[in-house]
Amino acid sequence: MMLSRTAESFFWIGRYIERAEYTARFTTVHYHLLTEIAKWDDQVDTWRQYLEGTGEGPLYQELYGNISTHSVLEFFTLSRDNPNSLFSLIAAVRANARGIQDQLSSEVWHFINDFYLGIKEKTNQDLWSDTHDLLDHVLNTCYTLDGVVGSTMIHDEGWNFYRLGKNIERGGRTARLMDIPIFSRPIVEPRIISDYHQCLAVLKSASAFEAYRKFYSAQLVPKKIVQFLLFHNKFPRSVRFTTTLNSKLLERMVGSTRRSETRQAIRVAGALAADLEFGSLEEVYDMGLSDFLGQVLQQLDQLTNLLAQGFFRTAAYSPDPKAVEKASRHTQHQSADANITS
Amino acid sequence: MKTLFDRYLVKPGFDEMFAAQDVPRKHYRRLVERLQKFPLKDLNLKRRQADEAFLRQGITFTVYGDSQQTEKIFPFDLLPRIIPNTEWHIINDGLRQRIRALNMFLLDIYGPQKILKDQVIPRDLVESSIHFQKDLVGFRPPKDIFIHIGGIDLIRDHDGTYYVLEDNLRTPSGVSYVLENRIVMKQLFPNLFADMQVRPVDSYPTHLLENLKYLSPNPRENPAVVLLTPGVFNSAYFEHCFLSLQMGIPLVEGRDLVVESDKVFMKTTQGLEQVDVIYRRVDDSFLDPEVFNPDSVLGVPGLMRAYRAGNVAMANGVGTGIADDKAVYVYVPKMIEYYLRETPILNNVPTYLCQNDKDQDYVLDHLSSLVVKAVAESGGYGMLMGPWSTTKQQEEFRQKILAHPRSYIAQPVVSLSHHPCVIANNQDLKLDSRHVDLRPFVLWGEEISVSLGGLTRVALREGSLVVNSSQGGGSKDTWVLYGEE
Questions:
Q1: Is the ipTM of this complex over 0.90?
Q2: In a domain, A90, yes or no
Q3: CB B323 within 8 A of CB B311
Q4: d(CA B112, CA A342)
Q5: pLDDT band for position B163 (50/70/90)?
Q6: Could you tell me the domains of chain B?
Q7: Statement to judge: residues A138 and A186 lie in one domain
Q8: Residue B263 contacts A where some CB pair is shorter than 8 Å
Q9: How many C-beta neighbours within 10 Å does residue B351 have?
Q10: What is the rounded CA–CA span in Å between residue B375 and residue B325?
Q11: Residue B453 near residue B468, CB atoms below 8 Å
Q12: d(C-alpha A242, C-alpha A117), whole Å
């Protein structure tokens, strides 16, 4: 038995951590690719594509306008205005963790708190002086955090929701990575250097480059990359791997559920897992890769909504979080901070 | 070798540690001996370690009115405050007596109102308090206990006599610092504790949980007890987490609870689970939007119905605010005489009620030397510190008092006792004395128990009498000894 709010926080901690991890890796990969690009136009193009791929283009446009490496890096790392910057994501992880501090192992709480306090102190100066170091630190801390959670928390409901959140995010991120033109066009082999780099960037962004090479040697063939990232049954970031795991995690909760929304969530997760387990690359291309990926993302969103209805809110009453914040500050309490003068 | 006390100058007033220059009080003698061998530079390191430990664990409070939502640590001073056994006995007895009388007052006010009929306390004083819940007259709380947790603020004047400055009977906070300060202190100075005869403080959460379970209106082997918090934005949120962890009970927010058929349930991933006892850290006025503040999103609609139906117990009881109203405070010694037929063991600070014409005249004539407080406020809001105020501020308060005499009291400035503290002085450290108070916590279940010691708060700013954490207040570990030294 677990408070619905606690379950929801576990879920979002998992999602935000995974998102931060992806963002850090994604940004590192592109940053490194760009160091070897000579032409300014290519640089801008790459960042533009990157921004579009993440769906953050409009917000970036609003905040910065022109594309420059400096601005893009800031936007994805330390920006306070981008809710999906590393800073914002880690702050969101921490805010969720703070709300369920009583349910976390003290190791996990201290780790998350340290993580937050560390990135809060970072300035643009730090970012420029060692971009790689900052991104690498975030990436490694995300990996380590997952280990701390797994090895110090009880593997009960909270852990299941944490993993569900992480997996749903992970599957979605991998799917989004593939939704770029060179994968949709049925070309056999990339010819120009920037295509090659795009393939490389996609694989590395999913930390799949080394794993891919084990199966297909160093040849970067778009179709094979799609095959690998969609269907591989042993690679933890393939879409199939994540959907299978989602379905398993949800089935574990079958015994404890009494609500129709939760049953429906299990059905949706099961159907998505079956699609990827029995699907083939031919079918995907018949349908169109972009459409197929869109469908996967849509089903993941649906799954998230069903989890919210089925597990996170057992009743409709859910006040506006802003109002809660305001009232909570104003609640007068007999604080130990009180004046003692007389 | 430079030692800690070489340059410490004992100031006028009551120094907790030293009876005179270089003469430590009996109960501090061992500590002073030990610390004399302690190099100053090591102390600096310990100090940093303490700060890091607090920050890392998130033992912080949120500064209100700051858009950055700055979280700060409550500064911790390394030198413990020591209370010898006999002195503690007096405090202990005094607090028990006071809490008993205050609880009887609440039972009476929300019951037969004998003390009003006998005109020991003016009826309009009680009925005009915003903390008086007149709808609850006739309601008896489970086990006849209103005050399950009380935080009583004590101060000492120039001769060391203890006085009660304030009773906090609604949602007093600070006990988590009592426990954490001790933990950090033991980590930093494990050797210091040997042979010091310090009594432990860590049984508080166990006592509290036992008391809460005792209140359960529903016959169950393991009553469901929860801690209700206003949420992460509340400045005492750390404490709410800390206590629920220590007691092993769920930490819930209003949105986690729902009332059906006058019973309280928490929403879980597996449906609704009934709640028997709520340790609430949400003020009365935010508890239930159906009854109190309709805009409250912190509370639970229907909670008061469940409470009145006797299906759920709440600690503290609803309506206790009338007993810690700063104007009602004036009458606590009379309550002790009236209900217990005893003489108060701990005295009040002399207080002028602006409602009384004679008192009001005096207050208005002496605004520049008195401290004026708004009766319904806590946390140091709505105060005038006479000697440090401008004529403009005094004029503002004059108008306020004339407009709402019931809302204000005044007290002479009590020069609080002071205690040596480790103060950073550029790169160097030095010892200097700072004013302190003491907030012991009183728990009431099957019986009354008092936390051993309590929270010693320090006004870390030189000369300041204000221990407010947003104004440079801090705290100290507080040691109650088994014996006299």
A1: no
A2: yes
A3: no
A4: 34
A5: very high
A6: 218-311 (3.40.50.11290), 351-412 (3.30.1490.270)
A7: no
A8: no
A9: 18
A10: 6
A11: no
A12: 31
Cα B233 from Cα A325, distance rounded (Å): 6
Return the bridge partners of B15, or none.
B418
What's the full length of chain B, in residues?
A: 485
**pLDDT at position B53, please?**
83
Q: What is the pLDDT of residues A205-232, one digit of tens each?
A: 999 999 999 888 778 888 899 999 999 9
Answer whether A339 sits within 8 Å of B411, measured CB to CB.
no
Range of the domain at A289: 160-313
Last residue of a domain, one of A119, A153, A187: A153
CB B422 within 8 A of CB B431: yes
Structure tokens at B267: 């929403």
Q: In Å, how far is B439's CA from the nearest CA of chain A?
A: 8
Residue B330, both tokens: 């004036």
- Residue count (chain A): 342
pLDDT of residue B67: 56
Q: What is the pLDDT of residue B317?
A: 96
Conformation bin of residue A271: beta by default, left when phi > 0, alpha when psi is -120 to 50: alpha
Q: Hey, CA dihedral for B8, B14, B16, B21, is it positive or negative? A: positive
Which residue, B393, B352, B396, B392, is CA-closest to B375? B352
Domain count, chain A: 2
- My answer on whether A92 and A182 are in the same domain is no
The conformation of residue B337, written as its DSSP 8-state character, comes to I
SS3 content of chain B, % helix, strand, coil (to 5): 35, 25, 40
Q: Can you give the pLDDT at residue B160?
A: 93
DSSP B298: S
**DSSP 8-class letter at B338:** I
Please report residues of B whose CB lies closer than 8 A to that of A341.
371, 380, 383, 385, 413, 416, 465-466
- At residue A318, the 3 state secondary structure works out as coil
Asked whether the beta carbons of A82 and A38 are under 8 A apart, the reply is: no
Identify the sign of the CA torsion B3, B9, B11, B14.
Answer: positive
User: Cβ contacts (< 8 Å) between A101 and chain B: which residues?
Assistant: 58, 241, 245, 251
Contact state of A334 with B437 under an 8 Å Cβ cutoff: no
A1–B268 C-beta distance less than 8 A = yes
Choose the closest CB to A341 out of B268, B297, B466.
B466
Q: Please tell me the distance from the alpha carbon of residue A259 to that of residue A303, in angstroms, as a whole number.
A: 15
Cis peptide before B316 (omega within 30 of 0): yes
CA gap A305, A58 in Å, rounded: 25
